[in-house]
Design brief:
Helix content is 46%, strand content 21%. It is of the alpha/beta class and 350 residues long. Helix 9 crosses helix 10 and helix 9 crosses helix 12. The longest helix has 18 residues. The chain binds nicotinamide-adenine-dinucleotide and zinc ion.
């Protein structure tokens, strides 16, 4: 078992432990008042696999439990689902001492977290991530959101969970592609903040040490979030590979997953970094080999011009320059402003 403590606007523990799904109630009882109500929000896939472990565990700990299940997938991270969740919370008469349990991947965590942030002007919630990506990234740090037709995550709030409980046994049922999305984010953490973590990812066979690897990732995220909870500066570093990654996701109409986009985004940035003389080709080759070894894509096949367009619509652009995160050697990242035209030219050359 590993515990990482977060000291943000809310202080909370992240507990990473195999088999902890059955202990969710016991862990909750150190944070939420016994006798209060727990509203579990999850998707249909996760519900069919794990709800029957979480509900009895919460009941046994003395909570009244109600659950709401919505269809899995990014399309559910919508205003429609959110309003159905509000209706459910009202029907179940949840009040301030009660809490929400977000059981699932990043879609559940983001949506249930935003419901918690806004229902009755905010009630407490806990995250129970069941995807690798949610474990290393979305369940920690307090960013919650839904998508609207104009774009992803455009409506949201900073709202920290009061507890995170991650049972890595749940990863056994993840489709390989979904697991690999978490791998891409983990490689990202190594590249930006920790050479040993990157080297560990290069070695492969990560399952035996998955709890330690997650603890490492979330401590990195914790350190960043504690310094810049509301994303005014340093937190941008966590977006390494994401500006181009998001653009790839967008131009492919999301047929490329988030992790796949991030993987290709990191590699494109490494190639730009090489052109700019920030590092040798050896770093790009190491990154490429690492990404490939987990079955993640290494090459963006589509039109780079279209990609450039998509990037320029990205919110990170300010005036005629674009701020990007470069890694000069594993473990050390820098935010660098590039002239937009130079960026587009370099992108065409890589
Ligand atoms: N808030 C943040 O800081 C943050 C950070 C990164 C990503 N995100 C968001 O996270 C979302 C992506 O998260 P995700 O990749 O976890 O997606 P997801 O929640 O859609 O999960 C992926 C799929 O796996 C299924 N699933 C979940 N756990 C399972 C398990 N243990 N076994 C089998 N199937 C399982 C789900 O039902 C779903 O179909 C995006 O909406 C993204 O915007 C948020
Ligand atoms: Zn990401």
């Amino acid at each position: 078992m590993k515990t990482v403590h977060v000291n943000a606007s809310v202080n909370y523990d992240i507990i990473i432990e195999k088999g902890s799904l059955n202990k969710v109630g016991a862990y909750a009882s150190s944070v939420f008042k016994r006798g209060s109500k727990a509203a579990v929000i999850t998707d249909d896939t996760v519900a069919s696999l794990y709800l029957d472990q979480v509900v009895p565990s919460l009941s046994a700990a003395g909570y009244t439990v109600a659950s709401y299940i919505f269809p899995h997938g990014e399309d559910s991270k919508s205003a429609e689902t959110l309003f159905r969740v509000y209706d459910f919370l009202i029907e179940e008469q949840l009040t301030r001492p009660d809490f929400i349990v977000a059981l699932g991947g990043g879609v559940v965590g983001d949506l249930a977290g935003y419901a918690a942030a806004t229902y009755l002007r905010g009630i407490r919630f806990m995250q129970v991530p069941t995807t690798f990506l949610a474990a290393v990234d979305s369940s920690v740090g307090g960013k919650t959101a839904i998508n609207i037709p104009a774009g992803k995550n455009l409506i949201g709030a900073f709202w920290q969970p009061s507890l995170v409980v991650c049972d890595t046994e749940t990863f056994k049922t993840l489709p390989a592609v979904t697991f690999a999305d978490g791998v891409a984010e983990t490689i990202k953490y190594g590249m930006i903040f920790s050479a040993p973590l990157f080297e560990r990812m290069e070695q492969g066979n990560i399952m035996p040490e998955i709890d330690e690897i997650i603890a490492h990732c979330v401590s990195i995220k914790r350190d960043v979030v504690e310094q810049d909870e509301h994303d005014n500066g340093l937190r941008m570093i966590l977006n390494y590979g994401h500006t181009l990654g998001h653009a790839i996701e967008k131009v492919t109409n999301h047929s490329v997953t988030h992790g796949q986009g991030v993987a290709m985004g990191m590699l494109l940035i490494a190639k730009l970094g090489e052109k700019l003389g920030y590092h040798s080709s050896a770093l790009t080759q190491r990154l490429e080999a690492c990404i490939r070894s987990y079955g993640l894509p290494t090459h963006y096949e589509g039109s780079v011009a279209e990609l450039g367009e998509a990037v320029l619509h990205d919110k990170k652009r300010s005036g005629s320059s674009i701020r990007l995160i470069f890694v000069k050697e594993p473990g050390s990242a820098e935010i660098i402003s590039l002239d937009v035209n130079q960026f587009l030219r370099l992108l065409r050359e890589v």
